[in-house]
């Protein structure tokens, strides 16, 4: 299956994003280490890293990566962009080996190879994205009972981790902080996709910011990102950078990928009826603005 022009643009942006984000893991880790030498460590609740230039350099690098990732969602299907984030594992693992002196063992090398093979397979078989004419189409998908149940369970799980698990196991169990960030990340994928579509359509002359749904998605993105940044800093301060990147990308890919694959599994079976509902990420262009309401 060939790669469309939009998918190619999304591919380039997603890979660029992985390079920036993977590098930012290492730069921020270096900043957290330096900050921990002069003040209260982030893992112990301190915020001395806010005065560390290395940490801010890592933040700027991460922001650049997230901007590229954000733009990628406007061009390519989320099922293509999200798994490509796993490429950041390779960059963070290699840089951690040389800069942070964290040993990259044979199984780590094998994992990097599997990431490349898996990402290549997804790129070559990614579905064509349908022509979405309104953020309200994404809202319709996000408010289906199945996703609402998942979102509610994710919020409950995150709350339990924050208020129960973090005080007791945050310093000793990697899964606590990774679980919080991964669950939030799975919700962020849908919202980022919606906001990126809103920007793309608005720039083309169809203002999507007149809809309240766009602002709800924007608030979700900001809230989830702030939570992830806070708990990732705590995790990076006390754990191996390449290990965190591996588990975080794995969890986010599994959680968000499960939902996205479910929504695209029947994309080849859509009919030609103009009024029939189809998955937002399917391959059909017969949707009109009237049918999106």
Automatic annotation (TrEMBL):
<protein>
    <recommendedName>
        <fullName>Probable magnesium transporter</fullName>
    </recommendedName>
</protein>
<feature type="compositionally biased region" description="Polar residues">
    <location>
        <begin position="282"/>
        <end position="293"/>
    </location>
</feature>
<feature type="transmembrane region" description="Helical">
    <location>
        <begin position="106"/>
        <end position="126"/>
    </location>
</feature>
<dbReference type="GO" id="GO:0005886">
    <property type="term" value="C:plasma membrane"/>
</dbReference>
<comment type="similarity">
    <text>Belongs to the NIPA (TC 2.A.7) family.</text>
</comment>
<dbReference type="GO" id="GO:0005769">
    <property type="term" value="C:early endosome"/>
</dbReference>
<feature type="transmembrane region" description="Helical">
    <location>
        <begin position="54"/>
        <end position="72"/>
    </location>
</feature>
<comment type="function">
    <text>Acts as a Mg(2+) transporter. Can also transport other divalent cations such as Fe(2+), Sr(2+), Ba(2+), Mn(2+) and Co(2+) but to a much less extent than Mg(2+).</text>
</comment>
<dbReference type="InterPro" id="IPR008521">
    <property type="entry name" value="Mg_trans_NIPA"/>
</dbReference>
<keyword id="KW-0460">Magnesium</keyword>
<keyword id="KW-0967">Endosome</keyword>
<keyword id="KW-1003">Cell membrane</keyword>
<feature type="transmembrane region" description="Helical">
    <location>
        <begin position="147"/>
        <end position="166"/>
    </location>
</feature>
<dbReference type="GO" id="GO:0015095">
    <property type="term" value="F:magnesium ion transmembrane transporter activity"/>
</dbReference>
<keyword id="KW-0472">Membrane</keyword>
<feature type="transmembrane region" description="Helical">
    <location>
        <begin position="172"/>
        <end position="197"/>
    </location>
</feature>
<dbReference type="InterPro" id="IPR037185">
    <property type="entry name" value="EmrE-like"/>
</dbReference>
<feature type="transmembrane region" description="Helical">
    <location>
        <begin position="7"/>
        <end position="27"/>
    </location>
</feature>
<keyword id="KW-0813">Transport</keyword>
<feature type="transmembrane region" description="Helical">
    <location>
        <begin position="209"/>
        <end position="229"/>
    </location>
</feature>
<feature type="transmembrane region" description="Helical">
    <location>
        <begin position="241"/>
        <end position="261"/>
    </location>
</feature>
<keyword id="KW-0406">Ion transport</keyword>
<dbReference type="Pfam" id="PF05653">
    <property type="entry name" value="Mg_trans_NIPA"/>
</dbReference>
<keyword id="KW-1133">Transmembrane helix</keyword>
<feature type="region of interest" description="Disordered">
    <location>
        <begin position="270"/>
        <end position="293"/>
    </location>
</feature>
<comment type="subunit">
    <text>Homodimer.</text>
</comment>
<keyword id="KW-0812">Transmembrane</keyword>
<feature type="transmembrane region" description="Helical">
    <location>
        <begin position="79"/>
        <end position="100"/>
    </location>
</feature>
């Amino acid at each position: 299956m060939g790669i469309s022009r939009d998918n190619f643009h999304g591919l380039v942006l997603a890979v660029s994003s992985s390079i920036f984000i993977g590098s930012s893991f290492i730069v921020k880790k270096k900043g957290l280490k330096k900050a921990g030498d002069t003040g209260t460590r982030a893992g112990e609740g301190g915020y001395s890293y806010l005065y560390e230039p290395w940490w801010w350099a890592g933040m700027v690098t991460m922001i650049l990566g997230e901007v590229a990732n954000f733009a990628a969602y406007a061009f390519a299907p989320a099922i293509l962009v999200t798994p490509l984030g796993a490429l950041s594992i390779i960059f963070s693992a290699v840089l951690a080996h040389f800069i942070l002196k964290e040993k990259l063992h044979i199984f780590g090398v094998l994992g990097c190879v599997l990431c490349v093979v898996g990402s290549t397979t997804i790129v070559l078989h990614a579905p064509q994205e349908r022509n979405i004419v309104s953020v309200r189409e994404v809202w319709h998908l996000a408010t289906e009972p199945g996703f609402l149940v998942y979102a509610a369970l994710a919020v409950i799980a995150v709350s339990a981790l924050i208020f129960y698990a973090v005080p007791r196991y945050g310093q000793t169990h990697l899964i606590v902080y990774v679980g919080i960030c991964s669950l939030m990340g799975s919700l962020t994928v849908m919202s980022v996709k919606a906001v990126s579509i809103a920007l793309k359509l608005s720039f083309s002359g169809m203002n999507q910011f007149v809809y309240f749904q766009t602002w709800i998605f924007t608030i979700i993105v900001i809230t989830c990102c702030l939570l992830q940044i806070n708990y990732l800093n705590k995790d990076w301060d006390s754990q191996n950078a390449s290990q965190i990147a591996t588990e975080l990308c794995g969890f986010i890919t599994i959680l968000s990928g499960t939902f996205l694959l479910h929504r695209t599994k029947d994309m080849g079976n859509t009919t030609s009826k103009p009024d029939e509902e189809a998955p937002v990420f399917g391959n059909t262009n017969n949707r009109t603005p009237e049918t999106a309401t």
